[in-house]
Write a structure and sequence with these properties.
The protein is of the alpha+beta class. It contains 4 helices and 14 strands. The strands form 2 sheets. Strands 1, 2, 3, 4, 5, 13 and 14 form a 7-stranded antiparallel sheet that branches. Strands 6, 7, 8, 9, 10, 11 and 12 form a 7-stranded antiparallel sheet that branches. The radius of gyration is 25 Å and the shape is elongated.
């Protein structure tokens, strides 16, 4: 009995040492991966990297991590001519394989979410007055949550030199086109005073798209839906390059 007790005590101690070593190793790897991701993507802040699964060391020995979660706040994507800020970008990576020298890492699959604030989405809208009919100009002055996943577009109109007392509100649908464009399309066109306006001209104001380019390689937009503090975006990807 005494011998068995000694064996069990040794096993517990060795097991504890292994767990401690494993957790130290995973913490170091998370910090290193976060720093490399910050450098490769040119991020202003160091992202959060969390390596799931246990034990970590046996995954490393196999050359592939089962599950890695990445969080980036304030990611700046390009929009065809400027920058658009993406907040709360989180992605769950599965099957992350890395090179022998750990200089590169690629995830087989990824899924996650992000948020684009309304003032960022507004950068793509017509915020300067545009003539939509003789003596009538219109411009977008605000975006907000329209309920049921819709975006409310506020349009300020000027008719014969007089600005309408209140913005005209249009409920619009938001969709993803081509994996990198958020398309805003009015469900129904508004009337600006008593002036009849051709649909094509009116949609020059109500409808617009925001290009979201320069996401981490392999990540693309999947779905978009209006929320109280901006549009909520679902992202997916395959063969996503994390480092290298």
């Amino acid at each position: 009995m005494r011998a068995l007790r000694i064996v069990l005590i040794i096993a517990v101690i060795l097991g504890g040492l292994f767990v401690a070593a494993d957790r130290i190793a995973v913490g170091f790897a998370e910090d290193e991966a976060a720093e490399r991701l910050r450098t490769s993507e040119g991020l202003a802040q160091t992202p959060d990297v969390s390596i799931k699964g246990f034990p970590f060391l046996t995954q490393v020995a196999g050359g592939e991590l089962d599950d890695v979660e990445v969080g980036i706040d304030g990611f700046e994507a390009s929009n065809g001519g400027g920058k658009v800020r993406i907040d709360e970008l989180t992605a769950k990576m599965r099957g992350v394989a890395f090179s022998d020298d750990y200089s590169s890492a690629t995830a087989a699959e990824a899924s996650g979410s992000a948020r684009i604030a309304y003032d960022e989405l507004l950068k793509a809208a017509k915020v300067e007055p545009v003539q939509v009919a003789p003596g009538v100009t219109a411009k977008v002055v605000g975006l907000s949550d329209g309920g049921n996943g819709k975006i409310k577009v506020a349009i300020e109109a000027t008719v014969l030199g007089k600005t309408l007392p209140r913005p005209v509100e249009v409920v619009s649908s938001a969709t993803v086109e081509g994996g990198k464009r958020v398309q805003v399309h009015a469900d129904a066109l508004p009337k600006l005073g008593a002036v009849a306006i051709a649909e094509q001209r009116m949609r020059q104001i109500t409808d617009f798209q925001q290009v979201i380019d320069g996401l981490p390689a392999g990540i693309k937009l999947d779905k978009v839906e209006a929320a109280p503090d901006g549009v909520s975006v679902t992202v997916t990807g395959s063969q996503v390059k994390l480092v290298g």
